[in-house]
Amino acid sequence: MTQAAIAIDSAKGIDPSALRNVPLFADFEDGALDELARLFTVQSFRKHQTIFREGDPGEKFYVVVSGSVAVVRDAGEGRETILSLLTTNDFFGEMSVFDSSVRSAGIRTLTPAEVGVIHRDDFLALIDRSPRIGRALVVALADRLRAANAMIASTSSQDIRSRLASLLLHLKEQFGEAIPEGTRITLRLTNQEMANMIGTTRETVNRSLNRFWDERLIDMKTSHIVVSDEAALRALVV
Questions:
Q1: Counted domains in the chain
Q2: C-beta contacts of 140-147 below 8 A and 24+ residues apart
Q3: CB within 8 A of 125, min separation 6: which ones?
Q4: Which pLDDT belongs to residue 25?
Q5: Residue 115 sits in the same domain as residue 83
Q6: Contact residues for 84 (Cβ-Cβ < 8 A; gap 6+)
Q7: Are residues 164 and 149 in the same domain?
């Protein structure tokens, strides 16, 4: 049994309402959404559990019902690179489903998470019946490619402070919650996870975050980072 299988606490049917806010299925009428929901099961994972690994067979397509996950690649010597973060209503696993290849990256949960799962054959048949899903996938994949290209460009051209500022701004946009002191980033990443996203070390991230705090760009009095001065962070992104 794989670690991914062990990580699954339970499997159950998916509520059609959980699919309503997924952009791929936004245009489905209630009856079609009910039919679609019957093709999915929901699997529950604990925090920091592997859903699948790089190199695994690509037999299923996934939708994030709740929680957040990281797209990761093996960087060698026990290290990983975090390529992107996905949260509720995002999807993953589509590339291997289309071309029957092995997984080009792994998925690891960052929080407790529930994911909707549909088998490859059912998903491809669904696309045949609903071409608009294929079009929505193309748009979503193009957006992801642009984001990946931007990340690569920033990692190769920016210094560490700029990269970290850019990451904090990205997290603010994706996971931000307005509070009187600024914007709280609701997703808690470890310093190592942030280092894995911007190509540096945990110690460097720790020093840089503390410097940002000293400069009052962020606040770290609680377990969640608060962006206190968004304009100053943006000024660091060159």
A1: 2
A2: 140/23, 140/24, 140/91, 141/94, 144/84, 147/84
A3: none
A4: 86
A5: yes
A6: 70, 71, 144, 147, 148, 151
A7: no
Within 10 A of 132 (CB to CB), how many other CB atoms are there?
A: 13
Provide the edge-to-edge strand list for the sheet that holds 50-52.
50-52, 106-109, 68-76, 79-87
Average the pLDDT over each of 55-59, 139-143, 152-156 and give the range with the smallest value.
152-156
CATH code where residue 222 lies? 1.10.10.10
Domain span at residue 24? Answer: 3-155
Whether residues 133 and 163 share a domain: the answer is no
CATH number of the domain encompassing residue 120? 2.60.120.10
- Which tokens in the block code for residue 150? 């931007």
Residue pLDDT, tens place only, 23-39: 888 888 888 889 889 99
Per residue in 118-151, pLDDT (tens digit) is 999 998 888 888 777 877 788 877 877 777 666 6
